[in-house]
Amino acid sequence: MTTPPSSKIYLRTPPEAGKKSAARTYIIYFLTGNPGLVEYYRTFLTHLYGLLSRDTASNRDVEFQVYGRSLSGFEMSTSEIKTMKWRKQPPYGLQDQIRHAEEDVVDLVEEAKNQGGRDVRVVLVGHSVGSYISLEIIRRLRAHGMAGEDFDVRIVGAVGLFPTVVDIARSESGIKASPFLKNSNFATIASIIVSFLTFLLPVSLIASLVARFAGFPGDAAHTTASFIKSPFGIQQALHMARDEMFQIDTDIWDEDIWGATEPSKHPHPRPTLRFLFARKDHWVADATRDALISSRGRFSYGGVEETDGMGENWKPIMEIDEREGWPHGFCISHSVPVAEKVAGYVRDIVGKDMQRK
């Protein structure tokens, strides 16, 4: 790979003149982890789109689109950064990322409708901190709806992959990183040091070093090298990580997100939530994961839900990968099997939504 990594991946069937649009369009909106380069996930998103499109190849009732973009500040060139729209320069904090992604979802739905989409709905898929951002987007958009401000964006479900949604500082990596990230100048100092050390090194050489010492495949090594050489990448990643340590702590969402026995008062039904945890995750402590499942979810293993039939089917299914051993950074070498897993989650979410109005 010699071209710079893309900051946006949008997979869809181009509209054709005279061809009737699908009755319902589902946009799978993907939110990356940190570092937030969507190019790490190209294989994952492409395979996911292929699986979902295969399901609807002869069915014009449903159309799938898969969209993902790099988080703000991780763009490969300064010209790509929307400084005018975001009204500030990088680095961007966690709350900035949530606001930017929320606006992006709204704009994407509007664009799809302007291009002929008759009924456009959204399924969010988030990896790591992207799961946290997903839940916050749902909370904020539903709050707008309750206030009578916006009913146009309908999020019908969300999938959290190896989610860091509570107590990230208590994880193995969080404990190690916290002492450094407490220093407000650490991100700036580290980025200056990295820039100095790599200033004269071409991307190709850095990619070769990453592939050799980190064991990354060629595409991931090139993306990592481009990230290191990008204008704000290192500073952006560390600045955002500092926010994650301080802000991702307690469970901040209510029953309108997690679910309840009684129907929601919101005009749209509550989104269907699915979570996939690793058996061992250096960014999610076992105790944190188990406590979240106990308090908010239904445990699932091998497709069997522990509390099925016990009156709690409204709870999100939270599955622990006990069999495959997928790592937190699945996008490096395990994109295809995780995409197959996510396709199953999306089919389940869409199947439930199709039964609604």
From TrEMBL:
The chain crosses the membrane at residues 186-211. It comes from the Eukaryota. GO terms for molecular function: lipase activity. Keywords: Hydrolase, Lipid droplet, Membrane, Transmembrane, Transmembrane helix. Its main location: other. One of its GO terms (biological process) is lipid storage. It is found in: Lipid droplet. InterPro entries: AB_hydrolase_fold, LDAH. GO terms for cellular component: lipid droplet. It holds the Pfam family LIDHydrolase. Belongs to the AB hydrolase superfamily. LDAH family. This is Lipid droplet-associated hydrolase.
